[in-house]
Design goal:
Elements: H1 8-25, H2 29-34, H3 41-68, H4 77-91, H5 93-96, H6 103-112, H7 115-122, E1 133-136, E2 152-156, E3 159-170, H8 172-177, E4 182-188, E5 198-204, E6 210-212, E7 226-237, H9 245-249, H10 254-291, H11 307-334, H12 340-365, H13 367-370, H14 376-383, H15 393-405
Helix pairs in contact: 1-4, 4-10, 4-11, 6-10, 10-11, 10-12, 10-14, 11-12, 12-14, 12-15
Length: about 425
């Protein structure tokens, strides 16, 4: 039987992070939502020390595992990741996204980078000053259909020259301007080759030819910057193409599949963030109901329950379902199992649940939920992004259907 019972160390980490979320993040959530240009530096600096420590510990554990040629106890790296994200997002999703780390860039490098690239680009996230990573995929003319990437990468001697425009880059401003941050940019080597021509490239902060155009004024997660970025004859070293040079020369969709493997790791992370937001809204709702003397009778027969009791019990069940799907997809990564189906299931379920639970909390509370006296209307705004980035709800449901029915993208689109 599969069990997601956390180890004692993981449970201790959860309790510590919940205290951080409750006492450090939650009190400034409204302020950061109203003043999105102001970064939560207390949180950033505090978490950076934790990020560096975890990175050093992970590197030491990996070195030990390699030396002994076996794992010392259960692998929990990805379970730790979703636990951390869920708890920090419970505090505030936008502030959580400001946590300095390799971010989506790190997922891409881990998925398709060479050992040398992983060492060169990821080591910086365990030392020095706070820094961020980001991934640039979406362009003005497309969103979910990544085969439409038009940003070009042309080889010129010992360099790649990038040209194109990317939009909605999460943490794009911090990653592009706070040296030595990094961006992973999806670009095509041949526009006529479709998916076969797509590869990922690492662009370091401050590289000439890369320009951040501004910061989006968004519905939710306003503490985190989302930026459009232009690449105008942006030159990067030849070795900054992710993966080996031989992959570039091969036919088929090897490069695209490698880039897409990034989502198998990043979608559980997004799902965990959504679960954290949904749990925050559910906890807040139950706290207010309790203060008003409204009891949730879990042992009463269904026909005796009030409408509010039914809603709350259903909300709890849906949040737990999303959480378990998220844990399963992360657990599979820790077990070195292919998790593309489960990652999309978790992402799709979490997006739907987070949106519905936060809306239902506002609905139950009425004017109190809609006002800014509490954070319910903010949680409702923050929730929607879970349905959008790292593949929309519709795209992830398509992926689930294709894999369950064994259909190709051409057969089911």
């Amino acid at each position: 039987m599969i069990s997601f019972k956390p180890s004692a160390a993981l449970e201790n980490m959860r309790n510590l992070l919940h205290m951080v979320a409750e006492n450090q993040i939650r009190p400034v959530a409204r302020q950061c939502d109203h003043h999105d240009a102001e970064k939560p530096w207390d949180h950033i600096n505090f978490m950076w020390e934790s990020v560096k420590a975890r990175g050093t510990e992970s590197a030491a554990a990996a070195k030990k595992e390699k030396k002994e040629k076996k794992a010392d106890g259960p692998r929990e790296g990805n379970m730790q990741m979703v636990t951390i994200i869920e708890e920090l997002a419970w505090g505030d999703a936008g502030i959580y996204l400001c946590t300095p780390n390799a971010g989506l860039a790190g997922f891409a490098i881990e998925a398709v980078g060479t050992p040398e690239q992983k060492e060169r680009f990821l080591k910086r996230f365990t030392e020095g000053e706070p820094k961020w990573g980001a991934m640039a995929i979406t362009e003005p003319h497309f969103g979910s259909d990544t085969s439409q990437v038009a940003t070009t990468a042309v080889r010129d001697g010992d360099e790649w020259v990038l040209n194109g425009t990317k939009i909605f880059v999460t943490s794009g401003l911090m990653a592009a301007q706070e040296s030595p941050g990094i961006l992973v940019v999806w670009a095509t080597l041949d526009k006529n080759a479709g998916r076969a021509g797509i590869k990922s490239f690492v662009v370091e902060a401050g590289t000439p030819g890369m320009k951040v155009l501004g910061v989006e004024d968004k519905l939710g997660i306003r503490a985190n910057d989302t930026a459009p970025i232009v690449f105008d004859n942006c030159r990067i070293p030849i070795e900054n193409i992710l993966g080996s040079a031989e992959v570039v020369q091969s036919s088929g969709t090897a490069g695209f599949k490698g880039a897409m493997a990034t989502f198998d790791a990043s979608r559980p992370a997004v799902a965990a963030s959504g679960v954290g937001v949904a749990q925050a809204a559910l906890d807040g709702l139950k706290e207010i109901l309790e203060k008003e003397g409204i009891e949730i009778r879990y042992d009463a027969p269904d026909h005796e329950l009030t409408a509010i009791e039914r809603d709350v019990i259903d909300m709890e069940a849906q949040v737990q379902a999303a959480r378990l799907l998220t844990y399963r997809s992360a657990w599979m990564m820790d077990e070195r199992r292919h998790n593309a189906l489960e990652a999309s299931m978790a992402k799709a379920k979490a997006g739907s649940v987070t949106t519905k639970v936060t809306q239902k909390a506002v609905e139950i509370l009425g004017p109190l939920g809609y006002s800014q006296k509490h954070l319910f209307e903010k949680w409702m705004r923050d929730a929607k992004i879970t349905d959008l980035y790292e593949g929309t709800q519709q795209i992830n449901l398509l992926i689930v259907a294709r894999r369950l029915l064994d259909y190709s993208s051409k057969a089911l689109s």
